[in-house]
Design goal:
single chain; mainly beta; 7-stranded mixed sheet; 5-stranded mixed sheet; 1 helix
């Protein structure tokens, strides 16, 4: 009887210990979750433009807010288009900890691939691009973060001073050896991702018989870089005019203007090398070259 009582007490003690451990694990409170508010308040556009924007939609059609944990794993992503009522602002619920916040703004047709290190845009699909990257630590209080987006791109503005002939159907501008991958740490195109970026425009009837302007964007893998540009005009599939420009000076957050009589002359093909070099001390917001 005594042995039975001892065994019973021992069994009850073990059960109590196990129950106590199980109960302790079940009622242990979860990690504190806090709210992070991201709000785009400014675009870093000087000296690209002197116009002050009154809304985010004046600069881009799509916004991505992505949050990564300390190991670089994505924990939250919000994609917004210009029609969203909350365009430019987002609330994210996260556990306390350290995070990397990335915001990217653009007007490309395709959705880019994003990591904590880079943004991969589609081939032949580049627009004006802005970005933001910051490490934040969340404690027990909700936090609001004002996001100032930095421009990553350079623009080439190609202008014809003569009229577009009625028989010309479309025009293509090719920027050689630029990048479609943005390095978020350097704020430039990836060095090992250089490729030709081609842009095509089909003329409407209203555009023919008038001078024409085409604006194209690129990511440079250096703050300043001379690139080669090819411009080709077609009548359906037949090439009617081509001009090649070498050593065209481009710079991040700057506009290079290329203008001249493109369609004039009897030769289908012409090439031009820019003899003028632009030093690092550009003062104007645009740099013009005639061809």
């Amino acid at each position: 009887m005594h042995q039975f009582f001892s065994r019973t007490v021992s069994t009850l003690a073990v059960l109590l210990i196990l129950f106590s451990c199980s109960t302790s694990e079940e009622i242990q409170p979860n990690s504190k979750r806090v709210r992070l508010n991201l709000n785009v308040v400014q675009f870093d556009v000087v000296p690209f433009t002197t116009k002050a924007a009154s809304s985010v939609s004046e600069f881009c059609k799509t916004l991505h807010f992505v949050v990564f944990d300390a190991q670089g794993q994505q924990v939250s992503r919000t994609d917004q288009n210009v029609d969203d009522p909350s365009f430019g602002s987002v609330d994210i619920e996260l556990e306390s900890g350290s995070y990397t916040v990335v915001a990217v703004a653009h007007s490309c047709e395709k959705i880019p691939e994003l990591t904590s290190k880079q943004v991969v845009f589609g081939k032949y699909d580049m627009s004006d691009v802005f970005f933001y990257k910051k490490t934040v630590t969340l404690d027990v209080e909700d936090k609001s973060l004002d996001v100032t987006l930095e421009r990553a791109t350079s623009m080439l503005r190609f202008m014809t001073e003569d009229n577009v002939p009625s028989e010309v159907t479309d025009i293509s501008v090719v920027l050689e050896k630029t990048s479609s991958v943005l390095d978020l740490d350097a704020g430039l195109g990836k060095e090992n991702q250089a490729q030709d970026m081609a842009y095509r425009h089909v003329f409407t009837d209203e555009e023919k018989g008038k001078p024409f302007t085409m604006e194209v964007y690129c990511l440079l893998n250096k703050q300043q870089k001379d690139i080669s540009v090819r411009v080709m005009a077609y009548q359906e599939s037949t090439l009617v005019k081509r001009r090649d420009f070498s050593d065209v000076p481009m710079e991040k957050n700057k506009i290079t203007v290329c203008k001249g009589a493109f369609f004039a002359g009897d030769h289908v093909y012409n090439s031009r090398k820019f003899a003028v070099k632009v030093n690092a001390g550009w003062q104007n917001e645009t740099n013009e070259f005639s061809y």
